[in-house]
Amino acid sequence: MNAILRTLLYEWKERKLPLAIERDIHLDISRPPEIKNAMVITGFRRVGKTYLLYETIEKLLETYPREQVVYLNFEDERIISPATDLLTDLLPEIQAVYGQKPKYLFLDELQLIPNWSKWVRRILDTETVQIFITGSSSKMSSAELPTELRGRAWETKVEPLTFKEFLRFKKTAIDKEKLTYVKEEAARFCFLFEEYITFGALPAVVLTQSEKKQELLQSYFQTVVQRDIAERYKIDNDVALRTLLKLLLNSSYITISKLTKNIKSLGIPIGKSTIDSYLSYIETSYFLNELYIHNPAVINQLQYPRKVYFVDTGFMTALSTKFSKNMGRLFENVVYHKLAQSKETMYYYKDNKGNEVDFAILGEDKTTALYQVCFDLTDEEILNREVKSLLKAKETLKCQNLNLLYLEKTETFKLPKEIKLLSAPEFFL
Questions:
Q1: Where do the AAA domain residues begin and end (predicted)?
Q2: Total structural domains within the chain
């Protein structure tokens, strides 16, 4: 008998599920039982993966009893030393407690258990149960799944809230029709959008009162550093890891050499290969994405600085060492994530004269769209620079789809006709 499993299973039978605010993403529960694939729900810690499971469970409980829809959280602190035996005993214990095997099995943070993927494969091959798994590591993504689950798992990635979902969580809405002619509605959009890009879009942070948001974000950061990076990868040099993360949060561009030099200058001994490994671990936790340069003249992308974007702008605000908010950088970060939803290949463009475009979208070996992000177009010098860079990139990359995104603009300027002007409301609503 596995005492901890029995305790968790008895608790599940009586447990009341918390209310979940509906997201735009849903899990498919209509699969026929003969399709024996697991559903893997991935994403950064605290983006709402567990609540997506709860929402799915609630729907299933309209048809099936609790005994047939079972949920377990492997981050429960009572599971002191996660071992493979826990999984080996799971179905027999469910049968012992409930008198039957489940039809649906929801396993939260399963990657904490050794050999979890081999167990999932065995259950898929020998049982009729439908399995839903969550994980806060990209090692569970479809691109990096263990060999035994290749072709046997579907991935659903959960991101922080979109702006539309953010409005739903705030129990409000923006009337797009009124935005152009009602100043109060435009002002309300700006107020809400500034909160969205300043404090980010992690569900619990959005629902937390303003004075507690930074504290909550900092506690999330500590958990990510400790559990998802330091403990998972057995990092002893905790000071170097935290210093690297703080440097990243205050950087728009990075190179391994510069990061190593900066950390060493603080008296922390570290080598380039260690920095490279730490960056890989940070990306695996979904905390960070890197964007590489795209230019036909560039032979080796790795020799050029990479741009960095974070899973949530709230961390940039809560952990930045700079005294004032860089609204332009926050705006660019949320635009990156909106564009990334299309799953298309994305780079940034820069030529040898310093002309730069924030995002170049590639498809079928050609550039299909260029996006320049400018928070404030009221500065004529900045506007001219952004337009010039777009036009230079257009010629070099042979791309006709030019877009300039903005939040604030003056009414007195004129754009070249080939550039499409996109306001934040148009892009995010």
A1: 37-167
A2: 2
Q: Which of 126, 157, 188 marks a domain boundary?
A: 157
Q: What is the pLDDT of residues 136-170, one digit of tens each?
A: 877 787 778 888 998 899 999 999 999 999 999 99
Residue at which a domain ends, from 114, 141, 157: 157
> Both 19 and 70 in a single domain?
yes
**Do 107 and 239 sit in the same domain of this protein?**
no
- Sheet with 253-254, strands from edge to edge, namely 253-254, 306-310, 288-291
Range of the domain at 66: 3-157
Q: Rounded distance, CA 256 to CA 290, Å?
A: 12
Q: How many CB atoms lie within 10 A of CB 10?
A: 12
Q: Is the pLDDT of residue 323 over 60?
A: no
Q: Are residues 249 and 188 in the same domain?
A: yes
**Quick one: 187 and 144 in the same domain?**
no
- Same domain membership, residue 201 and residue 139: no
- Alpha-carbon Rg for the chain in angstroms: 24
**Residue 366 phi, psi dihedral angles, 5° rounding:** -145, 160
- pLDDT of 375-388, one tens digit each? 888 888 888 999 99
What is the CATH number for 71?
Answer: 3.40.50.300
Residues 6+ apart with CB under 8 A from 201: 160, 161, 162, 163, 165, 166, 312, 313, 314
Degrees, nearest 5: CA angle 4-10-16: 120
